[in-house]
Structures are given as structure tokens and as C-alpha cells.
Design a protein that fits this description.
- It is a single chain.
- 26% of the residues lie in helices and 29% in strands.
- Strands 5, 6, 7, 8, 9, 10, 11, 12, 13, 14 and 15 form an eleven-stranded mixed β-sheet that branches.
- Strand 5 and strand 6 form a beta hairpin.
- It is built from ten helices and 15 strands.
- It is α+β, with helices and mostly antiparallel strands and 336 residues long.
- The chain is elongated and about 75 Å long.
- It folds into three domains: 93 residues, RNA-binding S4 domain (Structural Genomics Hypothetical 15.5 Kd Protein In mrcA-pckA Intergenic Region, Chain A, Roll), CATH 3.10.290; 82 residues, Pseudouridine synthase; 144 residues, 2-Layer Sandwich (Pseudouridine synthase), CATH 3.30.2350.
Length: 336
Amino acid sequence: MNLVSWLIKYLSVNLFFYIIGGHMKEYHIQMINEGQNLLKFLSHILPGASIGLLHKSLRNKNIVLNEKKAVGKEILCEGDVIKVWFSDETIEKFSPMVKVKEKTNYLKKLIVYEDDQIVICNKPANMLSQSDGSNQLSLNDYLLQYYGKMEGFTPSICNRLDRNTTGLIVCGKTIQALQKMNELFRERKIHKYYNCIVAGNLEGKGILKGWLKKDTKDNRVMISDIPDAESRYVETQYDVIKSICRSDYTYSLVNIKLITGRPHQIRAHMAYIGHPILGDKKYGNVKSLEISERFSIQKQLLQCSKLCFPLLPEPWNEISNKEIIIDLPKDMNLLL
């Protein structure tokens, strides 16, 4: 296209909107938005607009990418420019009404590692990883409070822990980091280690194998040696650190490496071999519940204590090949 043709095309669009009182707003793609497609970005910055309206606006060139017509599937890169020709009233109507609860720096107390791409938090007990529809604040809510909603992207967790399991959770601060960390967890390239205290005198080390099946009615899982159509293979590696006898009760501190990562896997596997985690009311047996009552244990003594990252290229070079390790929580230390 020659210069004259381009000017005619450009001015025809601009003049049309200025004549009807329209307004053009530019969005410059930053590194945090890189990697997502155009339509997803538009739905973040204009959540009040329907997908149909966004598609129509793209077809009519009311929304253009780098001065060109777009369809919405384009993958955004840092430096891209999106122009939206809507009236001020329309942009205000479709823009997000962010209702963040009162600003808090509580998350700062939980951070154990941070760089430009990710933040790793030590989640305490009785905190949800992400919202379940109740009024209780989740770690995701604290992320939003601390960092704010970035244009076209909301920081989010990349792995989950049960409400009463403590320990390390990785959170993405950019869309690329969120995608990359999710990929690494999915492909089991980030190795996850847990500490737990179980009932009884568990000895040595080993690898537990089995098949896990979820009972959605009771929100619990069952382990079996025999697979069926609804079960999924699980593998749990354990290494006993030490066993303790106290007040005629015996329990063991165990280090766990998750080979697979299914919901409630560690809790169910320990219970399956007759050594439930202390404080675990859902999977406990008579002995573990008796010990838990004797020592006033209020929640399962399970902690995600270490994350090992693989060798990674830029922009994840700061976390590349690193181990993030945290100390045992106070309630577990008191029993040792």
C-alpha cells in the first residue's frame, strides 16, 4: 500500500469517529501482557463488552492492532499498539469496575521470593489458595490487593494447596510467567517436597504407588491397588526423617516428594498405608485422631517445604536452577 492510499484509509476511519463525537484510546502492550491473544486482552480491559461486540468492532476496524485490521486470534507482543475507537461514555461503561477490598500489605509478610516474573509465598493454614465463593479472602485476593489489577492481566497463583496445608505457592506476575509456571508444574519439571508428621513408627524410605479415585459427594479420595475407569495413577516418594515417642504416643516426621500431584494425594496415601497425617480429620484413623486430641492439633500437619526449579532461559533466569526452602511451621516444630 502506498503512502497516499494509507493516509486515505487512516483518515477515513479517524474522521468518521471524530465527526460522530467518538474518541480513540491507545493501549500499549507491556511485557506483562505479552503472549496472550488480542481478544482475551480486550475482554480484560473492556469486560463489560460482549465477545460478539468485540468481534464486530474488529470486523468494522473500530479496534485495530498496529494500524491493521485484526480478527482477535493474534498473539500480542511487547510494543504492540491497540487502538479502540469508542466514545468516552462507552469506554467508561465497558471498563472494569475493580472492587478491591481495603488495601493491605499482609501479603508482604508471606513473600519468601520475588523477581520481575514471579512471587513465591508461604501460605498459612486456614487460607484458601483461590476463592471458593465465600467471603473469606484467598491468596489470590491478597495478590490483587498488593499488586493491583494490571491492564489486561490479573496476577494469579500457579499451584494450589488445601486450605489447612501450609507452604509454598508460586504466583505469576506476568502472563508469560503464569503460562510458563503452569506448564512447568503440569510437566512436573518443578519438583515439590513436603514435610508431614504421621501417626505411628514409619521407617525407612520408599515409593508408594496406587490408583486414586475421587468421591465428589464427600469431597475425599480413595486409594486402591487396582485401577478402574474413574481412577488415576498416583506415585508418592517418602523418606522418614525421624520417629518420636512422647507420652506413650509414637509419630514420625516424614519428607515427601510428589511424583504425581493429585488432590489430597499425600493425605490419602499416608492414610492408606496406616500412617495418617496428624490433625487430618478427613483421612485420620482412631490412633491418629487420639494423638491429635492429646496434643491439641487443630489442622493437618502438612507443609509444602521445598520447590526445585529446572534450568530456565531468560526471562526466568533469576529463578533458574534454584531451590526455595522454608522452615517447619511452629505447630510442627513443637512436636519435635
